Amino acid sequence: MNPSSKLQANRQYFQRELKRLRQDVLRMGALVEHAFRTSHRALFDRDLSAAERLAAIDKQIDRFYRQIESDSIMLLTLQAPVAQDCRVLGAFMQLVRDLERIGDYAKDLGEIAVKIFPYPPLDCMPEIERMSHEAQAMLAMSLISLVDLNPEAGNQMKEKDTTVDDAYDRLYNRLACQRDYPGILEPVLLVTLAIRHLERMADHATNIGQRVTYIVTGHRG
C-alpha cells in the first residue's frame, strides 16, 4: 500500500471509530436520562423500588464513562488526529464527565428519597418537581443537540439554565428563611440538598450544550 492510500485508510478508520465513539456517548446519555427519570420517581412519587435501582444504573454509567475515556485517549495517542479531531475528542471526554456527574446526582437524589420517605411531603415539593422537570428537559435538549450537532445549543442551554437557577434561589430562600419550624429539621435539610443537586444537574446539562457548540464551531456557546 502506497503512503497516500495508507493515509486515506487510516483516516477512514479514524472516522469510523469517531462515529462509534459518538454513538457510545449517546447511549451513555440515554442511560443518564433513565437515571434522572428514575430518581424523579423515587423522590416525587415516593417510589422506594426506583431508589433501589439507581445504584445499579450508576454502575452502568460509570462503565460507559471509563470505556469512552479510554477509547478517546487511545484515538488521541495512536491515530495522530488532526487539530479538529483533537477538539472533538477533547470535548467528548469533558462531555461524558458531565454526564457521569448527572448520574451521580441522580443516585444521590435516590438516597435522599429513601431518607425523606418517613416524613410527610413539604409544601414546596410541587415547585421542586417542576424544577426537576426543567432540568430533565435541559438534559434531553443537550443530547438532541449532540445528535443534530446544533451549534446554537450553548446559547439555548444558558437561557434554560437561568430558569432553573431562579427556581433554586427562590426555593432556597424559602427553605432557609423558615422560622420556628414545627417539627424535625431533617426533611428541610434533605430538600435543600435535593434542590442543590437539581441545580447542579442543570449546570452540567448546560455544559454539554456548550461542548456541542465547541465541537461544531471551535468556540464556546
Protein model, in words:
The protein has 221 residues and is an all-alpha fold. It has a single domain, classed as Phosphate transport system protein phou homolog 2, domain 2 (Methane Monooxygenase Hydroxylase, Chain G, domain 1). It has helices at 3-44, 48-78, 83-116, 125-148, 153-176, 186-217. The longest helix has 42 residues, at 3-44. The protein starts with a helix and ends with a helix. The model has no long low-confidence stretch (mean pLDDT 90).
Write the topology of this structure:
Layout: H1 3-44, H2 48-78, H3 83-116, H4 125-148, H5 153-176, H6 186-217
Question: Can you summarize this structure?
Answer:
By secondary structure, this protein is mainly α.
The radius of gyration is: 20 Å
Q: What is the H-and-E element order?
A: HHHHHH
What fraction, in percent, of the residue positions are helical?
A: over 70%
Total number of helical segments? Answer: 6
What portion of the residues fall into strands of 2 or more residues?
Answer: under 5%
In terms of structural class, how would the helical and strand content be classed?
A: mainly alpha
Return the average pLDDT rounded to an integer.
90
Provide the number of structural domains. Answer: 1
Unreliable stretches covering 5 or more consecutive residues: none
Assigned CATH superfamily: Phosphate transport system protein phou homolog 2, domain 2
In CATH's first tier, which class applies? Mainly Alpha
Q: How many strands, which pairing sense, and closed or not: the largest β-sheet?
A: none
Looking at the overall shape, the CATH architecture is Up-down Bundle
**Spatial gap, N to C terminus:** 43 Å
Structure summary, number of beta strands: 0
Sum up the overall morphology in one term.
elongated
Return the CATH topology: Methane Monooxygenase Hydroxylase, Chain G, domain 1
